Amino acid sequence: MTMQATQTRETTFADLLASGIQLEAQTQHVYQEFANLFAHCPDVAAFWRALAAEEASHKNRLIQIRDGMSRERLARPGDVKMLQAAQRLLAVDLGERLAEVRDLDDAYELANDLESSETNTIFQFFLTELSQDMHVVSALMRDLDEHVERLMAEFPAAYATRTERLAVKALRS
Length: 173
Hints:
The chain has helices at 3-8, 13-37, 42-67, 71-75, 80-91, 94-99, 104-116, 118-130, 134-153, 162-166. By secondary structure, the chain is an all-alpha fold.
């Protein structure tokens, strides 16, 4: 949905969920591409695949939330500012950003940008606004926090410094 569409009709929860699902799928794709670009470093590729799997889990959770909602609930008014934030993120050309990844440091920095972007704020908004089970929300919020921390804490130790990451070149087929 374009920004113009949100101006001509009311934003709904369904619109928000669709954008959130798309954002999670987009980030999953980036991490899968990183795994391919660094397949020559098995520990790095495994790290990126694990992050991609977590993004798939986030996407699937949003799909479950959407599928568990009534049509009436999905049609209720949604937060226009959240939808606009999601649309700004979706407008970023990640294909272009991926093409600019020359080395592991570029990938690491792009991952940091993605994880510190509004995407996580939007996901947290969905969990808070759309899930009725506070135990589920608490668990997922904890998972999300751990996911963000994983980039810093669990990145393969052999590539902990920028100098080490710059030395690992992305391999394109």
